[in-house]
Amino acid sequence: MFLVHLWNYIRGYVIIIAKGKSVERFINICAKRQILLWNIVRQDESSIICMASARGFKLMRPAAKKSGCSVHILNKRGLPFFFKGFKKRKGFKAGLLVFGLLFILFTSMIWEIEIKGCEEATAAQIMELLRAEKVGLGSFKMKLDPKKIASQILIDMDDVAWAGVEIRGVKLTVSIESAVEKPEIVDYSQVCDLVAERDGLITGFEVLAGSTRIKEGDTVKAGQLLVAGTLEAKYPEFGTRSVHAMGRVFARTWYEGRLPISYEYVRRFRTGERHENTFVRILGAKIGLFGNKVPYEQYEIVSLDKTMAGPFGTRLPIGLTVETYYEIKEKVVQLTREEAEELAKEQARQKLLSQLPADIRLLDEKVSLVTDDSGKEYVEIILECEEDIAKPVPIGGD
Description:
By secondary structure, the chain is an alpha+beta fold. Helix content is about 25%, strand content about 45%. The strands form six sheets. A five-stranded antiparallel beta sheet has the order 11-9-15-21-20, covered by helices on one side. It has a four-stranded antiparallel beta sheet with strand order 2-3-1-4. It has a four-stranded antiparallel beta sheet with strand order 10-12-8-22, with no helix packed on it. Strand 2 (about 35-45) and strand 3 (about 45-55) form a beta hairpin. The radius of gyration is 43 Å and the shape is elongated.
């Protein structure tokens, strides 16, 4: 029923009153001539109120005359009559035209970009690539070739195995399949030894190819031969054979760090003063309002973005950015001996940990206080670890 009412509203209909001694005959004649009447309500013995299409009303006058009835319009409804009322209003017609043009313009542009199937770092790289190709918010869809964009992503990004670009409505979606990391290719035809990458105490080893030159419990120095790439035959007359030595040699290693103890610490704090700057964002450009000067030498920034929402849940590339600047002051704080030692320990530990290899295993930690000949105090930290110290070195090479 809803679709029927909608259709009648689109084409327009009228509410009429028919009066006469033969209103039944009027209804029958209209039915024979296929003039649709609906919602017929009898007012009294000689009159009825009903609805008819605008076209049907024009065709029913002969039926009214033949039945001896008079027909009058009580009300007109529907789109044709609605627009007819604005026929003489030039401003409305101009506004309607502008609205239609803006609707066509905005629906022919990209207002949202989604990148899925990859990590944030890769997504950021793809966004930079799209900007370089002049693809972004506000780009016209008719100028974009999804296949070309996907091909460019595959050409410029080595860690992407497959890329798909789809434009649906005002949204551009980039789907990514990350490439599987290439395995390290080992040239087994190259003859090499395994030597110690650093000093250590051997705790175990797994030799797949080559001749072992160490045993568990040995102390080795950096550069010392661990596994030789030369195999000697059981019987000397058969000579030797050179191979690509392979295996892992685990050893306890030690990393040492030292940091001077300082009894002064520079603390940064907010003074309570703050200043706000407002920017208008249009298609990626940020336009400052009211000068937007920062009155502080040192400050922290907190940004708040407000984006306008468009139809169908889209985000328009128009919005405001409010940046709040908090004034920062620095103050030198005197530390107690315990506080200074604890701060130096933590800083030395973090600095040393940042230098360790990724696949290392931490076993123990020793922290001590030392004083040099000049009387300056230091925090010394020693980390005991276990790691694979075997490093392939081609025979005859460095």
